[in-house]
Design brief:
This protein has about 750 residues and is α/β, with parallel strands linked by helices. Helices cover about 25% and strands about 20% of the residues. The protein is built from 18 helices and 31 strands. It starts with a helix and ends with a strand. The chain binds beta-D-glucopyranose (BGC). Beta-D-glucopyranose (BGC) binds near residues 68, 257 and 409.
């Protein structure tokens, strides 16, 4: 009996703990609030330095220290300047950019990413990581696509949740950003986005919603741009109605840096914590610029004059205190660790898993060009009957350029970064392969960010042994067994960079011509494109092997070598479509009104823009318009091949379960992502042919098979009904597609759904 009651007590405490803890901290919040003076309340809702807010020192309440985000913990800057503080203890491990993470299509990688990043944040004393970003890839020109998770709201939702859970499991807050509709950098401080409710709810909000309602994110960052005429850092509709009203968000809304634009709206429209710099230029020369932030003295004055009450203030303070209790006062916060072996291993694993093998055709010697060394099979001795490679020429600036510096606020000061050339050379040496290098083109002479710089001008002449470096390069190309071109973008201005969009879809610095010339010299050409977005690939039909590598972080060179040499079998899938030309992205079909915006007649000096393509973003448009992408959404090859066997089972409740057995047919281990898309056959409103509704990644040893289960749930197949303000699934026929990409469908199934049942 005694044992039973003890057990009961233990069980009760287990189940009641979360609720009572929550109630306890709410009590604590009320208690702290009741002891705070007006000045203290005002102090906690705005910054005290570039990246911190003060807490309540008199009551022993610590402040909040924030850091970018999203790919590593940013170097320390001066108290009130963007310039680096010049510490020696603030380097980090750079994890791959978020497009790479999305390309793994593996939520476990997101969790791994979040946990490891948070370990570094803990060690560096950070409470809030300004990450992750989930704005949708609407145009390949967006300068910040590399910080986001691609074009599909479902993929971004599934990938963002474990990232946040991983970070927050360590007592560090994630701050999901930039809420919302911040899908370009051009006019980012000025543009008012006009978008239908359907596109808002179906395309642009789902990942944020998942972050709030599934991951329970502790903070969210308002974006710079405008929506319905209001700035998004204090936007009634987005923050009050949707975020808090519809989704029940209980965390803190943080402004983007300098994104708060006025006091009255900042008071009433949902902002809790103002960060930024030299706000409005007003603070130049004053002793404490933070006192004149919109939520500082101007707010206090309105309260003191009796022009506004303190209800909103108390709510903001509650939200900030809740964030403090969850992070800087979290009793379970550990000490973390910085650049540990585990962090590097995680960075490398995510990087290799995100690399996408776009193409791997037979080349000159009638064998697939990759992997470079082929596989050795124990019984047959040689699996990939390749003529051994003895010499490799690596061409391209991105083989040597540091890829962790630049790009804006995501720029990092790393403890180490393995360049692609280093990674390839190290790996090639193991097989006795000689590696030559030629820079091929010069894009960047000097890389700079926050007064950290790398001088590349010396490197320029590396290949200039002879009179004409190009001739020398082509001579080497002809002489070597394989040529690996490593180019793409580089996070310099207009080349995947915050604040400025790309100017064109083409690759810069004459790379297309260079690739053509190299191909002519030696058709055994591998193109490795490093970018965080889609680029034009006019040579895609010719070049036999194409690899999409991203900004891969500290372990970039190792990860690229792992895949090129076959030590890791590629399994990444594209998180966006690579189209032939810019206008294949429908945002670019409506002139400047569609992108980047035209002067706003209602707001002088500002712009507005219409998302006229509505819900038809990326593959949703390509399917509808029957445009063939060069490489479709969800595409990615492997060094092995898979077979699929599909059947379905009827469930007792009338629903169906689809079972797919995936078989690894070859002699190397590998992973495949099975993707499920659904489309309504005869919709009453315009709908995409199909939309991603589920996916699973499966790892298989040679010859192994595993069975995956997909539950078909028509509740998830609806569209946003603007009149009803909710998702609605119409009765009718639906087609369910299973594929290894959005275009490579191996099984489709038509079914009727009616009144909550399907037949
Ligand atoms: C960026 C944010 C970033 C912040 C702080 C802003 O300019 O838009 O993403 O977190 O700066 O560096």
């Amino acid at each position: 009996m005694k044992h039973f009651s003890l057990l009961l007590a233990a069980l009760c405490s287990l189940f009641l703990a979360p609720c009572s803890l929550r109630a306890q901290s709410e009590q604590q919040i009320e208690d702290i609030l009741s002891r705070m003076t007006l000045d203290e309340k005002i102090a906690v809702i705005h910054a005290q330095s570039k990246f911190s807010s003060p807490g309540v020192p008199r009551l022993g309440i610590p402040g909040l220290w924030c850091s970018d985000g999203p790919h590593g913990v940013r170097a320390e800057v001066l108290w009130d300047e963007w310039n680096q503080a010049g510490w020696t203890s603030d380097s980090c491990v750079a994890f791959p950019a978020l497009t790479c993470l999305a390309a793994t299509w593996n939520p476990e990688m997101s969790r791994l990413y979040g946990e490891n990043l948070a370990e570094e944040a803990l060690y560096r004393g950070k409470n809030v990581m300004l990450a992750p970003g989930v704005n949708i890839f609407r145009t390949p020109l967006n300068g910040r696509n590399f910080e986001y998770m691609g074009e599909d709201p479902y993929l971004a939702s599934r990938m963002v949740v474990p990232y946040i859970q991983g970070v927050q499991s360590k007592g560090v807050a994630a701050c999901v950003k930039h809420f919302a509709l911040n899908n370009q950098e051009t006019y980012r401080h000025l543009v008012d986005v006009k978008v239908s409710d359907r596109a808002l709810y179906e395309i642009y909000l789902p990942a944020f919603k998942a972050a709030v309602t599934e991951a329970g994110v502790w903070s969210i960052m308002g974006s710079y741009n405008r929506y319905k005429g209001q700035y998004n850092c204090h936007n009634e509709y987005l923050l009050n109605d949707i975020l808090r009203g519809e989704w029940g968000f209980d965390g803190a809304v943080i402004s983007d840096w300098g994104g708060c634009q006025e006091t009255p709206q900042a008071i009433t429209n949902g902002l809790d914590l103002e960060f930024g710099t030299w706000t409005d230029g007003l603070t130049m020369g004053t002793t404490n610029s933070y006192d004149i932030y919109y939520l500082a003295n101007p707010y206090k004055k309105l309260i003191q004059e009796g022009k506004v009450g303190t209800e909103e203030l108390d709510n903001k303070v509650r939200n900030v205190l809740r964030l403090i209790l969850r992070t800087s006062m979290n009793p379970n916060r550990g000490f973390g660790s910085l650049h540990s072996d585990e962090h590097y291993a995680a960075a490398r694993k995510i990087a290799t898993e995100g690399i996408v093998l776009l193409k791997n055709d037979v080349a000159k010697d009638k064998q697939p060009l990759l992997p470079i060394v082929g596989y050795v099979d124990e019984e047959e001795k040689v699996f990939n009957h390749k003529k051994p490679v003895e010499t490799i020429l690596v061409v391209g600036e991105n083989a040597i350029l540091p890829m962790t510096i630049g790009g804006g606020s995501s720029s990092l000061k790393v403890q180490r970064e393995i360049s692609p050339l280093q990674g390839i050379s190290e790996r090639a040496a193991k097989d006795g392969i000689e590696v030559y290098y030629s820079r091929g083109y010069v894009g960047v002479e000097r890389l700079e960010q926050d007064n950290m710089s790398v001088d590349m001008s010396e490197e320029k002449y590396d290949y200039e042994n002879g009179e004409d470096p190009k001739e020398e390069m082509l001579f080497l190309a002809r002489a070597c067994d394989v040529v690996i071109f490593i180019g793409g973008l580089n996070k310099d201005g207009h080349q995947d960079c915050e604040g400025v969009d790309r100017k064109e879809y083409e690759l810069p610095y004459g790379q297309n011509e260079l690739i053509e010339a190299l191909y002519k010299a030696n058709p055994n050409l591998v193109v490795v494109n490093i970018s965080g977005t889609a680029v034009a690939m006019p040579w895609a039909k010719k070049v036999p092997a194409i690899v999409q590598a991203w900004y891969l972080g500290s372990e970039a060179g190792h990860a690229i070598a792992d895949v090129l040499f076959g030590d890791v079998n590629p399994s990444g899938k594209l998180p966006f479509s690579i189209m032939e030309k810019l206008t294949d992205y429908p945002a670019h079909q409506y002139g400047e009104l569609g992108y980047p915006g035209i002067p706003d007649p209602n707001a002088e000096g500002k712009f507005y823009e219409e998302y006229k393509e509505d819900i038809f973003v990326g593959y949703r448009y390509a399917d509808k318009a029957k445009v063939k992408p060069i490489f479709p959404f969800g595409h990615g090859l492997s060094y092995t091949s898979f077979a699929y066997f599909v059947w379905y089972e009827d469930n007792a409740d009338g629903t169906k379960t689809v079972k797919i057995t995936v078989v690894n047919e070859c002699k190397v281990a590998g992973s495949e992502v099975v993707q499920m898309y659904v489309g309504e056959d005869k919709p009453t409103v315009p709908r995409p042919v199909k939309e991603l509704k589920a996916f699973q990644k499966v790892y298989l040893e040679p010859g192994e098979s595993k069975t995956l289960t997909f539950t078909l749930d028509p509740k998830d197949w609806g569209y946003w009904d603007e009149d009803e303000h909710t998702f609605v699934t119409n009765p009718g026929y639906y087609t369910v597609y299973f594929g290894s990409s959005s275009r490579n469908i191996f099984w489709r199934y038509r079914r009727y759904y009616s009144l909550g049942k399907d037949y």
